[in-house]
Design goal:
By secondary structure, the protein is α/β, with parallel strands linked by helices. Helix content is 27%, strand content 26%. The strands form 2 sheets. A 5-stranded parallel beta sheet has the order 6-7-8-3-9, sandwiched between helices. Strands 2-1-4-5 form a 4-stranded antiparallel beta sheet, with no helix packed on it. It binds adenosine-5'-triphosphate. This is ATP-binding cassette domain-containing protein.
Length: 208
């Protein structure tokens, strides 16, 4: 369960975004929708733990019973997935996956190969990202995010670069993977069709 409590984000002493209480259960998806500039990225950055020096922030972030808002980015166990451009272009597919796994883990190579097998992409281990189709890139990017074993995942327009035919298939696959692992998901999208569960309009949270 991901929980935001008593969050206010202010800009120049003016409250810009506030969330009294918001919960996302493990395995479910909460979708944020709103126009450009309504604060979606700002909220995702705060959840991730990225610095927001131009804002004043108060509030708590809890994940699976532990408070995380004071933890540094790498200790929060929150992953981010955006458009397919996510993969490192200068690393082959297998190396992209290895990047998510701790160097000390003696099973990391095996784990990356198993992930490729689960995605039916074993034959692409040595391919460069640009040699994959959009759907294949999206699957590798998700798998890389999952190998880092996040407890929550933020999806920022993750399907927007896929064509309509592929989009539905990849979307179903992604949400099934996340549900299976009990991960709390926050999704930002401009397309209602992408949203599998509850939708929150940024209008309810912002006071611009
Ligand atoms: N570093 C910053 N310093 C000051 N203001 C900022 C900063 N970053 C964003 N803002 C402002 O905060 C508001 C929210 O921006 P944000 O990027 O969160 O919107 P968004 O909903 O993600 O928009 P988009 O859909 O275009 O990505 C905007 O008014 C923006 O101009």
């Amino acid at each position: 369960m991901l929980e935001i409590k008593h969050l206010t984000i202010s800009k120049q002493q003016h409250v810009f975004l506030s969330v009294e209480s918001l919960q996302v259960a493990g395995g479910s998806v909460l979708t944020l929708m709103g126009p450009s500039g309504s604060g979606k990225s700002t909220l995702l950055k705060w959840l991730l733990g990225e610095p927001l020096p131009d804002f004043q922030i108060a509030g708590e972030l809890w994940l699976n019973g532990k408070q995380r808002d004071q933890l540094p980015i790498h200790a929060r166990k929150i992953g981010l997935l955006h458009q397919q451009g996510d993969l490192f272009p200068h690393l082959r597919v297998l190396d992209n996956l290895l990047f998510a796994l701790p160097r000390k883990d003696p099973r990391r190579h095996q784990a990356a190969l198993e992930a490729l097998e689960a995605m039916q992409l074993s034959d692409k281990a040595n391919a460069w990202p640009h040699q994959l189709s959009g759907g294949e890139q999206a699957r590798v990017a998700l798998m890389r995010a999952l190998l880092a074993q996040p407890e929550a995942l933020l999806l920022d327009e993750p399907f927007s670069s896929l064509d309509t035919a592929l989009r539905g298939t990849v979307r179903e696959w992604v949400f099934a993977q996340l549900k299976q692992r009990d991960i709390s998901v926050m999704l930002v999208t401009h397309d209602k069709e992408d949203a599998p569960g509850t939708i929150i309009s940024m209008k309810e949270l912002t006071h611009a």
